[in-house]
Design a protein that fits this description.
By secondary structure, this protein is mostly beta strands. The protein has a single domain (2-408), classed as Beta Barrel (Porin), CATH 2.40.160. Helices cover 5% and strands 56% of the residues. It has an 18-stranded antiparallel beta barrel. A hairpin with a 2-residue loop joins strand 4 and strand 5 (124-131). It is globular, with a radius of gyration of 22 Å.
Length: 410
């Protein structure tokens, strides 16, 4: 039934691709206002982690094509279908394609990345099928858009914006696919997110994410931007707590959890000069609990450094806790693009070895003049290992070079 719902959502547009002007016998249009969009994103990635495997390199490309159209001339009724493929052109010098190399999480694969029907009445919309869901800063729920095969969620989602500045979202997630999740991972999870944006200086979010057989997370976030002449400040503060999963999908014995999370971030743009600092804590397991704070459905690449050294820990095995203190320095302008460097210092809250190492990240991204929708990106990560017994005892270096071209019809 779950996969059938996604398939039903895609049928109208798959047929519409054969004849955009298809009409029913009584003369009304089945499809109207068809919009096409797509992306081509070639990337080179190198990964070299000290240890028993060889340095990996991958040349991959993400190709995405999507079509969206109104259905049956019914106001507010529409559907969308999108496909995404990742090709490595036969270059397999990376795991999991070849286990003798280091890991790069961009396997050659293809999937239905979007396939849904939506209905909008006034400022309330209902969506059923497969779509991309990114909430707040993606610390808890995200699509991992950095990876070539972005995660998509199978859901029934309601969004209401009837009150100015207030967005209410409720979503029942019954599966997800993408990154290395192929085929679909079934689940039975519930998401609630309430966001109120008073103005640019203050936005408040409250959320409840009940991930089946994993944990329940409750929390809040405040963020905003404040402009003062040539200085533009931005800030964010988050707090959340996790407890034992209340939703039982697979009849497993859910782990006892008692853990908390907080994050404080402050940044400034001073006539193009970028500076910032952040302190983030994913708490350890407390009392008799068996798991610390984790975020398995986050866009994890955004957090704890570009080297992805802590993916396994923050996704599911963070028993001793993780503290990440970072500082940022860079420059941005419309002419030259944006460049910055971030330094991270990682420590554990508990355990016999609390030094988890450090990392220096660098990034440059810019639009390509004269080609609408085309960007270039160069990126690097240098992780330095922590102390013996920390679980993070190997240096890790990564480089990326990428082009990204997006297009759409009006």
């Amino acid at each position: 039934m779950k996969k059938l719902l996604v398939s039903m959502a895609t049928v109208p547009l798959l047929l519409g691709g054969l004849s955009v002007t298809a009409s029913a016998e009584d003369g009304f249009n089945i499809f109207s206002g068809v919009k096409l969009s797509g992306e081509i994103r070639p990337r080179y990635e190198m990964a070299d982690k000290e240890g028993g495997t060889d340095a990996a390199s991958a040349m991959t490309a993400r190709t995405r094509l999507a079509a969206e159209a109104g259905l049956f001339e019914v106001d507010g009724l529409s559907a969308k279908v999108g496909i995404t493929s990742v090709n490595n052109f036969g270059y397999t010098d990376y795991a999991p394609a070849d286990s003798k190399y280091d890991t790069i999480l961009d396997a050659q694969q293809a999937m239905l990345s979007e396939g849904y029907v939506s209905y909008k009445v006034a400022k309330t919309s209902l969506l059923a099928g497969r779509s991309f869901i990114n909430l707040d800063d993606q610390r808890f729920i995200g699509t991992v858009g950095w990876r070539q095969m972005e995660r998509a969620y199978d859901s029934v989602t309601v969004v209401d914006k009837s009150i100015k500045g207030l967005t209410l979202l409720g979503s029942w997630i019954y599966g997800y696919q993408g990154v290395n999740s192929n085929p679909t991972t079934d689940t039975a999870s519930a998401l609630v997110n309430v966001n109120y944006k008073m103005n640019d200086a203050l936005a408040i979010s409250a959320f409840s994410y009940l991930i089946a057989d994993v944990h329940d997370t409750y929390g809040a976030r405040v963020s905003g931007k404040v402009a003062m002449d040539s200085i533009k400040l931005n800030y964010a503060a988050s707090y959340a707590m996790q407890s034992k999963a209340s939703l039982d999908y697979s009849s497993k014995t859910n782990a006892d959890i008692d853990a908390s999370y907080y994050d404080l971030a402050l940044g400034a743009n001073i006539s193009g000069l970028l500076v910032g600092a952040e302190y983030e804590v994913l708490g350890k397991a407390n009392g008799s609990s068996t798991k610390g704070f984790t975020t398995p459905l986050a866009t994890l690449h955004k957090f704890q450094g570009f080297a992805d050294e802590f993916l396994a820990q923050t996704a599911g095995s963070n028993n001793n806790g993780l503290m990440d203190a970072s500082v940022k320095l860079g420059y941005a302008s419309k002419k030259i693009g944006k460049a910055f460097v971030i330094y991270h210092s990682f420590t554990a809250e508990s355990g016999s070895a609390t030094d988890l190492g450090s990392e220096i990240d660098a990034l440059y991204v810019s639009k390509i003049p004269g080609v609408n929708g085309l960007k270039v990106l160069v990126k690097a990560a240098y992780y330095t290992a922590g102390e013996t017994g920390s679980g993070h005892v190997s240096d890790n270096t990564k480089y990326w070079a990428q082009l990204d071209y997006k297009f759409s019809t009006k």
